[in-house]
Amino acid sequence: MQPALETNLMERILAPENLHRAWKQVKFNKGAPGIDGMVLDEFASYARLHWDEIRQSLRDGSYQPSPVRRVIIPKLRGKGERLLGVPTIDTNYLTYPIRKNSPYPDSTAPLLYF
Asked: Are the beta carbons of 13 and 105 closer than 8 angstroms?
């Protein structure tokens, strides 16, 4: 992994107003638990305890998002099933400010490697 390519971009992503907006969005969406089983109520205290190491791993490029939890849901009108990947709450929380500050509009590919 490499450190964030643009320090200014990472500082914008980690700006308190962006992180606050991200938390509001995750709460509004009622984020479901991912593979780690962590629920919204648990995440706030977890993030407070581990924020320094999370922030540092984002800055130095060592942050690794958790795998998604695979869920099978029925398709509309009962015609088969569809696979859905549910990310962890921390991944949802951290990708929101990245998406909002990304120099790659409408692209999710760079998010896979943040």
From this structure: no
Do 55 and 4 form a contact (C-beta atoms < 8 A)?
no
CA distance 34 to 87: 5
pTM over 0.90? The answer is no
pLDDT digit string, tens, across residues 33-75: 899 999 988 988 999 999 999 999 988 889 888 899 999 999 8
Here the tokens at position 66 are: 């958790």
Which H or E run contains 41? helix 40-60
Confidence at residue 97, expressed as pLDDT on a 0 to 100 scale: 85
Question: What's the CA gap between 100 and 74, in Å, rounded?
Answer: 31
Beta-ladder partners of 72: 83
Distance from C-alpha of 90 to C-alpha of 10, rounded to nearest angstrom: 17
Cα 85 to Cα 72: distance, rounded to the nearest angstrom: 9
Phi, psi at 36, each rounded to 5°: -80, -10
> What pLDDT does residue 114 have?
44
Q: Integer distance in angstroms from the first to the last C-alpha of the chain?
A: 9
